[in-house]
Amino acid sequence: MTTTLRHRDRRPGRVRRALRATTLLAAVASMTAAIGACGLASGSTPPFTVGAGSIKNIPALDGVKVTVGSKEFTEQVILGYIIEFSLMAAGADVRDLTSIVGSRSTRDSQTQGQVDITYEYTGTGWINYLGNEKPIPDATKQFEAVRDEDLKKNDIVWTAVAPMDNTYALAASPEVIKSTGVKTLSEYGALVNKNPGAAQTCLETEFRSRQDGFPGVASTYGFPVTKAQVSILQTGIIYQATADASQCKFGEVFTTDGRIKALGLQLLTDDKQFFPHYNAAIVMREAYAKEHPDIAKVMTPVSDKLTNDVITDLNLQVDVQGKEPAEVARDWLVKEGFVSKESS
């Protein structure tokens, strides 16, 4: 996927968002059709080249072919480019396969050998891929558990875990919080049981069906899920729709999304600690990881710098300020001294 820089669009915000939503729908449909017809493409060249910084050329990685994948939402695309530029600085021959639609498609592309490396979340691995029902409250123990079980069952290596923890949450505008008195998920559940119409909630398709998503929230907090209560929207649209409170009284959000702060949204407290930890970690097939052990060495110091504050700011630069994910990822790596800026 080649990234091009956008000119500033001066049309009204709602018009721009509607146009972006239409474009995204078309792109998703096109990609889904392509995957169904012939599998994922082989990838493309990253949009920028970078030079060495603290990440120097590593002879063992010089010219090594590596295909980097990611899911399609902003944070994942940024993380994918962070891998790409880091390994490019180390000398690898990098192919870009970011923006794969959905967790399952991304996972399958890796287990089937189409993607060599991704950033994945520990909670997603533990619940969705390994089929466990209960998360582990301690973040370190959660990482160790998914690391050990995925290696044993699926020959998948988890390494270079980051401190960033992008879990799910429900959010609302301050006005909705004030009018409903709902500040916790227990209070949200009570509102649904009392008056479902007052708890109109916007979700993305995947969260609506995932066990670590809305079905699990409903089971834990004791409320039914009805069509009248739930609206399905694309992830990027939910934030503004929740801030406006015109279509969504409450909305599903990612806790490291920059739009939460930019739009003044408030997170409901997960008072029963339902949501797992979602620390991002480097994931590779075992055979590939053993063949190229220097990849983990390159990515570990990069992951160590990826805190919640850092990734939230990077997300904000894309979703609020309109910058390109590849540009944001590269500039952060340059700022941290990992790579040097060359040409675009």
From TrEMBL:
Gene3D superfamilies: Osmoprotection protein (prox), domain 2 (3.40.190.120), Periplasmic binding protein-like II (3.40.190.10). The keyword Signal applies. Pfam families: OpuAC. Residues 65-333 form the ABC-type glycine betaine transport system substrate-binding domain. Residues 1-36 form the signal peptide. CDD domains: PBP2_YehZ. Keywords: Signal. Coiled coil: none annotated. This is Glycine/betaine ABC transporter substrate-binding protein.
